[in-house]
Amino acid sequence: MNRILEIFIVALKLGITSFGGPTAHLGYFRAEYVEKREWLSDKVYQDLVALCQFLPGPASSQVGMAIGMMRGGLLGGIAAFLGFTLPSVLLLILAVRLMPPSIDWVQGLKLVAVAVVLHALIGMAKGSLQSWQTVGIALLALLACLYLSTAVTQIAVIIISALIGIALFKAGSEQGGPVALPLSRRTGIINLVLLVILLVGLPVCANLLQNDWLTVFDKFYRSGLLVFGGGHVVLPLLEREFVPVFLEADEFIAGYGLAQAVPGPLFTFASYIGAVIGGLWGGLLAMVAIFLPAFLLVAGCLPFWQQMREKTMMRKALIGINAGVIGILAAAWIDPIISHTLFDIKDYLLFVLLFCCLHYFKFAPWLIVLLGLVIGLVFYR
């Protein structure tokens, strides 16, 4: 139990201080878990990051869960998840209570969202669009999401991008040394079976019982499972599921901007949506629902990790998937973010100001959010 408490405290420290998005989170994790505490080697850490990059879900949160599981089994994974996630969840729930989206800072936060997503797009493109083939995949994904906007478009884009990656690209197989894991293969299989049961069973039960909260849980669960490419990509999935039935587009985009102000994983934006729908318990329900598939995937795959590390097909598929999700994110940046935010020359000028501060002058994300709040109060009364 002392080890579980240690995992929680270390993760809580990271959850309070880790600003800057998924890439920055991985840097914080390496400094704390590899360099400072030596819980795992640098090579094992790199392989673990690679595993979580091709799994659907929030990659940085999954790395934290996996390290917790390697250190303390399933309870260690839960402790690592709660420590890293609860600070931002509670802050976003509190923000819904204290700052209703009808006041003047909403437009400022929407401008923040435009700048942050563009910044993320550029960063992802630099790392993933290294050839004309990957650029082509991204452009096709962008056009598909803009002009074939259906419930299955984004899933189809991800699957097709993976198949193109397997067919076109080459990827070396980087192997590491063996790793001792406190999870059995039987435990892994149980978690993967539970993952599938929930994916199939939740919508069926929600329809049969006509229970609104079960429906909301199912929507968050599927959104958390079907995300490839990092926390920003959950934006179009959540937008499709919750706008305008459960909240308005302005509330949605303002909440996404607000999520940039808090440390920890961007997936906690779901808690903002849940809190708008149902207060404190709605926010906590959203946290559990959107992170549950990530937890089950990590617990299910870790026992088979050694064999997976030796395969190249997953690495090849990831090249195509990463290109495809850039197109998905670009489509979401155009609609709903730009279409609901930039209306006149003042909007465009203030957006450019925020983007330059973030991208060129390297302002911390929380400073950009504060600047957005000030802009909203000063220019949009």
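^ that was protein a. below is b, sequence first then the tokens
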Amino acid sequence: MESRDAEAMLDNVRNICLALPEAVEHIDGFGHNTFKINGKSFVISGESEKGFSLSFKSDRETQELLLQKEKYFKTPYIGRHGWVSIQNPGRETGMN
């Protein structure tokens, strides 16, 4: 995914997240765009050599349903708390 595509994807994510009451955006210590409400993260996005990634907090039931789909995976380190990730989401959905 080109950086331009990643920036467009981040803009879409930002517009959705910041439309929620009390949502704020924060750049964490790893350079990830982190969206929080009342100090609790609910979406984390970033870009690496693999492209744009998006991680989000879900309940355990939703996490299990999503993990049955090939494109989703348990977020490293925080997946045990219900987090799910997707790499280059625009490629699968035609959003880029």
